[in-house]
Amino acid sequence: MAVQISPSILAADFARLADEAAAVPNADWLHVDVMDYHFVPNLTLGLPVVEALRKATDTPLDCHLMIADPDRWAPQYAEAGAGSVTIHAEAAKAPVRTLREIRSLGARAGLALNPATAVEPYEDLLGEVDMLLLMTVEPGFGGQKFLDVVLPKVRRARELIGRHGGRVWLQVDGGVDAGTIERCAEAGADVFVAGSAVYGASDPVAAIDGLRAAANRAVS
Ligand code: DX5
Ligand code: ZN
């Protein structure tokens, strides 16, 4: 699996989202953090913004739903044209049904786990997902410090994925920057979300190139 970089627009200027999407032409995805003040103590954006962003950029949208009722809302993000829709295992009441619905609507289905959620109970669900997202901060805010404590889980997740054919992408999200991306790649992650490290940089394009090169170095 080639390294993929998904800049998080949480760290972008919300008043200029179309420009901010255009500012990262070398991104593989645009990571869109949807927060509802219930699953996490922060509120960001929802479907209308995703629909508008979809029309404003050709870069596929990687929607990360940090919301209390993903079973109800996730399919609508797929219908809105998101290329990938990720739900949290801690929030979903019917993850198998919801993941299947996301796929049936033509999007990639992702399952996210908080730092303290073990990956092993979800092994049997790997066939239902296209991407596993391991949070490397507690979800809710950008700019937090990377949690090294998650790295052993990244390794174990990579092993589980390997045992199931190696098809599932392994994403890390939170505190990923030039100082931490190599450890994540070495542990087995292949899709990297970066908010502050991209949109906080004076040259976002160069920041993405730098992150990609560092991740590739770590696995070569
Ligand atoms: C946190 C979000 C992340 C956030 C990452 O809950 O899921 O996507 O934007 O931001 P950085 O890269 O600044 O940690
Ligand atoms: Zn995110």
TrEMBL record:
Catalytic activity as recorded in UniProt: D-ribulose 5-phosphate = D-xylulose 5-phosphate
Gene3D superfamilies linked to this entry: Aldolase class I
Pathway entry: Carbohydrate degradation
Residues in the signal sequence: none
Binding positions for a divalent metal cation per the UniProt entry: 31, 33, 64, 173
Protein EC: 5.1.3.1
Residues holding substrate: 8, 64, 140-143, 173-175, 195-196
Keywords: Carbohydrate metabolism, Cobalt, Isomerase, Manganese, Metal-binding, Zinc
Coiled coil: none
Cofactor(s) in the UniProt record: Co(2+); Fe(2+); a divalent metal cation; Zn(2+)
Positions of the catalytic residues: 33 (proton acceptor), 173 (proton donor)
One GO cellular component term: cytoplasm
Statement: the UniProt record of this protein carries the keyword Metal-binding: yes
UniProt record, GO biological process: pentose catabolic process; pentose-phosphate shunt
Record NCBIfam families: PRK05581.1-4, rpe
Family named by the database record: Belongs to the ribulose-phosphate 3-epimerase family.
Protein name, entry field: Ribulose-phosphate 3-epimerase
Gene expressing this chain: rpe
